[in-house]
UniProtKB/TrEMBL annotation:
Transmembrane segments: none annotated. Coiled coil: none annotated. Pfam families: Acetyltransf_3. GO terms for molecular function: acyltransferase activity, transferring groups other than amino-acyl groups. This is N-acetyltransferase domain-containing protein.
Amino acid sequence: MANPQLHPLEVNPRTGEPFLRLRKHKNVILTPPRSSDIPENIRYLNDPHVNDMLSGPPVPYLLEHAEAWYKVISTPSEETLAAIEAARDMPDLITVRHCPVRVIREVKEDGEDVFLGDIGLLRFDEGRLLAPDGLQADDEQKAKYVNANIERPVGDPEIVWSIGDYLAPSHHGRGIMTDVLETLLWDWAVPRMGVRRICASAFEGNHGSIRVFERNGFTVTKTVENWAVVKGRMRNLHVVEWDYSTAVPPSGSS
Ligand SMILES: CC(C)(COP(=O)(O)OP(=O)(O)OC[C@H]1O[C@@H](n2cnc3c(N)ncnc32)[C@H](O)[C@@H]1OP(=O)(O)O)[C@@H](O)C(=O)NCCC(=O)NCCS
């Protein structure tokens, strides 16, 4: 019998892999990372339709970057699944540190799936935005706020979370990331991690990303001019925020 602590994840009967099915795009699922994703990740993170709007991944994005990234994202997934397994017999659903599923895949009619992208929910670690006077604060002040956010215990409603995502260009504009974020937020982040506050950002001009956030109830709270030079250009940054206390749960959320 599947471990009830996986709820609402399902388990692929063929592979035993847990997955979360999107609320609207029923043929799209989120799963744990697989090492076989590395070539696709390299392909998309070298595509200017994707990488130009991302500050993290370097260009060119090489095998060594993808392998290091795979370690970074697979460890929390494995640890969370281990915690869920250890709690198998507990009567109530436990609150967990991470989301064990994050890789976006399209399931084909024959049951095989295709890598489509990635969404990560991580503790916010941008001191310039976390500290109250962050843009002026010194490094020590910024580090103090970042460390406090990282050290908060699992399930603490004061944790500020952040989101990073990308989707294969072939699938842009079909409402997939809007659905991915809604599903991640309401089917896992809120009920299973106790996520209550999120602060994310997108470069000015990234209309698609801002719309994904707005359609999920995020509000643009500020725009920071001359945030950083990324991929050779000075960027302005839109900051978007979400707060559970004022959020309107979409239908189907408990
Ligand atoms: C941003 C991104 C994740 C959006 O995903 P998506 O699945 O294409 O978005 P959706 O289809 O759910 O669209 C949501 C809204 O954005 C709009 N949109 C999507 N892509 C767009 C684009 N390239 N240009 C303008 N608008 C776009 C849609 O029309 C829709 O708007 P609406 O609500 O007014 O109808 C995707 O384009 C992407 O991966 N971009 C490159 C990486 C990136 O920017 N990541 C986010 C970093 S902050």
